């Protein structure tokens, strides 16, 4: 199972990220490239966007760790083999499990 991709800093439209990035860029650059303009707003925007993404990754890692701990604890408590943990994790994350088919 592949990890979900993180959106770029300009693609968070639901939280105004796209509009905010355009605002920051237009303030920094104006209608054309101005090398003497202050880029601090754009830098602040990029750092904030990447910080939000890092927090999202941390949250996803914490949730994944909890999802692995729950079945493991349950398995030990009920005396089931460890190999059941991956199936339980799959069900907890996707809600799907396909029984292996005999050849």
Protein model, in words:
There is one protein chain. The chain has about 100 residues and is mainly α. The protein has a domain of about 35 residues. About 60% of the residues lie in helices and about 0% in strands. Helix 1 runs antiparallel to helix 2.
What order do the helices and strands follow?
HHH
Overall body shape: rod-shaped
Structural class: mainly alpha
How many H/I helices? Answer: 3
Low-confidence stretches: none
- How does the major sheet shape up? none
Share of β-strand residues:
under 5%
How do the helices and strands line up, and which of them pair or pack?
Layout: H1 17-29, H2 40-78, H3 84-94
Helix pairs in contact: 1-2, 2-3
Identify the notable features of this structure and list them briefly.
103 residues, mainly alpha, 61% helix, rod-shaped
Question: Could you give a quick summary of the protein structure above?
Answer:
The protein is mainly alpha-helical and 103 residues long.
């Amino acid at each position: 199972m592949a990890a979900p991709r993180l959106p770029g800093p300009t693609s968070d439209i639901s939280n105004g990220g796209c509009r905010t990035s355009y605002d920051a860029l237009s303030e920094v650059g104006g209608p054309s490239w101005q090398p003497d303009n202050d880029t601090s707003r754009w830098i602040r925007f990029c750092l904030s966007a990447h910080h939000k993404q890092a927090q999202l990754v941390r949250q996803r890692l914490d949730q994944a760790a909890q999802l692995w701990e729950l079945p493991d604890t349950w398995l030990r408590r009920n005396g089931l083999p460890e190999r059941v943990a991956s199936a339980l994790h799959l069900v907890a994350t996707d809600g799907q499990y396909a029984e292996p088919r005999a050849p």
